[in-house]
Specification:
Layout (H helix, E strand, L loop, with lengths): L26 H9 L11 H29 L5 H27 L4 H6 L19 H25 L3 H31 L1 H21 L11 H4 L7 H18 L6 E3 L6 E3 L5 E4 L4 E7 L2 H10 L4 H18 L3
Antiparallel strand pairs: 1-2, 3-4
Helix pairs in contact: 2-3, 3-6, 5-6, 5-7, 5-9, 6-7
Bound molecules: fe (ii) ion (FE2) (2 copies).
């Protein structure tokens, strides 16, 4: 999987309303951005641009990194060696994607080792969806189908519009691999749906809780956002709602085609996709169940995101604990 949309999103640290303006007092930099040129080095950036670029990269790196343990826990339930190998190949890709983001952060003056191994679990900035455990092979498949498709949209947008040259080029490899991940989700989901019976029921149950979680992934609706610095700086090109619509336009027709029910439909009056439930609404993370009869406020959602979900600490521990144990053992 992956992400990238950093502001007002489900990473737990989104900003409700951005009042900041593009505080650049550097006409040469403004000109560069306006012309659509790529920025290649820190010497060309304003401090505000550097800060926003780092924020976006941390969200991307953290999301890629955390998807590895999230997927690994479910990959162990793979139904065959071949299926397990595919899942491991995807996990390997995700770690490489994380490396690209953290490596660029290091070039921008951050300490990669500290970022990965010394941060508190709650300070990792990834979508809330990964904090809800993926427990079965079916759920891993739906993660490929929905989460990797979300990553494909978010990173595809950045890949196309990104003003920072090194990241734009790094995303060429990432996009090709995300495409493979979501194809794995599509192929398996189709097979499971066609199998019918209990297999199909299990697929539908996973879709029922994972679909609304991915709709949330794209963050606050545009009507609640006053301003996006990331759009100003061309660190993304589409708004939260535009990205959400893009995702819906890819996922809803495919699910309908393979006979999986999703709570959304295409509007009869325009090209938009509409949700068949109140957005946002209440989610029970322990039971992994949405209550479509209980709409909530975005403040409630932000509270849930910031509190992080059930698997946050466990997943961060999978890569931090062994690192520190090894360091301790070899300190003397
Ligand atoms: Fe992926
Ligand atoms: Fe990825």
């Amino acid at each position: 999987m992956s992400a990238g949309g950093a502001d007002s999103d489900s990473t737990g640290l989104g900003r409700l309303a951005e009042n900041g303006r593009m505080a650049s007092a550097n006409p040469a930099f403004d000109q560069l951005l306006k012309k659509g040129d790529l920025i290649e080095s820190v010497s060309e950036m304003t401090p505000e641009y550097l800060r926003e670029l780092k924020h976006t990269l941390v969200v991307s790196g953290d999301t890629e990194l955390i998807s590895a343990p999230a997927y690994y826990l479910a990959a162990q339930r793979a139904p065959s060696i071949n299926a397990f190998m595919t899942a491991i190949a995807i996990i390997q890709d995700e770690l490489a994607h994380a490396h690209i983001a953290y490596h660029i952060l290091e070039e921008l003056g951050e300490d990669q080792e500290k970022l990965i191994f010394s941060r508190d679990p709650k300070s990792f900035r990834y979508p809330y969806a990964f904090d809800v455990p993926l427990e079965t092979w079916t759920e891993l498949i739906v993660a490929n189908l929905f989460y990797d498709q979300a990553g494909f949209c978010l990173l595809g947008d950045i890949h196309e519009k990104c003003s920072y040259g090194p990241w734009k080029r790094g995303l060429v490899k990432v996009m090709a691999e995300e495409n493979f991940h979501l194809r794995n989700g599509r192929t398996w989901a189709k097979r499971m749906s066609q199998a019918g019976g209990a297999t199909r029921d299990e697929l539908q149950r996973a879709v029922d809780w994972m679909f609304p979680l991915t709709v949330e992934w794209f963050g606050l609706p545009d009507s609640m956002k006053m301003h996006s610095t990331q759009l100003d700086y061309r660190l993304k090109g589409l708004t939260n709602d535009q990205l959400r619509q893009w995702w819906l336009s890819l996922v809803v027709p495919y699910c309908e085609q393979i006979g999986v029910k999703v709570p959304a439909h295409k509007s009869e009056t325009n090209e938009h996709y509409e949700l068949d439930y109140p957005f946002p609404c209440t989610f029970d993370s322990q039971a992994r169940r949405w209550d479509f009869k209980d709409p909530c406020s975005w403040d409630d959602v932000l509270l849930r995101w910031r509190g992080r979900g059930p698997r946050n600490q466990e997943m961060v521990a999978t890569f931090q604990e062994e690192f520190h144990r090894f360091r301790k053992q070899h300190a003397s």
